Amino acid sequence: MTAGQLSSASPSRADAGMLARMTARLRFAGPDDAAEIHRLIVDLATYEREPDAVVVTPAELRAQLAAARPPFECLLAELEGHGVVGFALFFHNYSTWRGRPGLYLEDLFVEPAHRGRGIGKQLLVRLARIAVERRCARMEWAVLDWNSPAIAFYRSLGAAPLSEWTIFRLTDQALLDLAQTTG
Predict the structure, then answer these.
(1) Which of 36, 66, 139, 179 is 20 to 30 A from 156 in CA distance terms?
(2) Catalytic one among 47, 94, 104, 154?
(3) pLDDT attached to residue 183
């Protein structure tokens, strides 16, 4: 059985309890993890109802992770016997008001078969520790407004939505058009 597949056999109560208590091993990803990261990115895009939106390739991720200054860092969550079951992909931004870096969580995803075991919380706790160790002023991320389970989860951790802010984005042709604007 590969990660992401569900067994057709129901686990016994003892097995289910043991699985629920399993703690994931967290580690930083390296270039050799590019295929696993890509798989999880595609799984996340599918969950977010955008399965065709992923254009990055495993080769591009590998090259980026091998760069002298990778554009992102990634924590992987592994379960014994299941391999990589989740990830948190992040990078640093900067708070001009606080005068310190921040940690921006781009993607957090745990395979559906492994949710409810505390793996998402484990990843967020480790990210919070990284942010504190690196003297970050804050940790931020975006969540789709229809993802009420994630919103409730984040609120339970003490995170607060920034309802007065609206996210803007330039991509593709709009980005090229602005870049070519004179004046």
Answers:
(1) 36
(2) 154
(3) 77
